[in-house]
Design brief:
The chain is α+β, with helices and mostly antiparallel strands. The chain has helices at about 5-15, 50-55; strands at about 25, 30, 40-45, 65-70, 75-80, 85. The strands form two sheets. The chain has a three-stranded antiparallel sheet with strand order 2-1-6, with no helix packed on it. The structure holds zinc ion. Zinc ion binds next to loops. Zinc ion binds near residues 36, 38 and 75.
């Protein structure tokens, strides 16, 4: 799945045995994986201040996005607002 995913996976593995993950809420709604329906994720951050995203007129948003990686299938959900851990 490419270098980014492998880097993320190795980072997750470096934290120990397969993480259970945590539940998160965004905009008062529980986050579930769009692919497998799992509800536990590992949170991360990704910088948005690249030339490409400035071109897409995302200057109004935070300069970093929250990423939630599904601990069941590895799908990454992106949020411009900070997910709340529950
Ligand atoms: Zn999933």
């Amino acid at each position: 799945m490419g270098r980014f995913f492998r880097a993320l996976k190795s980072g997750v593995e470096a934290m120990g045995e397969a993480p259970e993950g945590d539940r998160y809420v965004v905009a008062e709604k529980g986050v579930t994986c769009a692919h497998c329906g799992h509800d536990r994720f590992v949170e991360g951050r990704a910088q948005l201040n690249t030339a490409g995203l400035t071109f897409l007129n995302l200057d109004w948003a935070n300069r970093s996005a929250a990423t939630l990686a599904c601990t069941a299938c590895g799908r990454i959900e992106w949020f411009l607002s900070d997910p709340q851990e529950v």
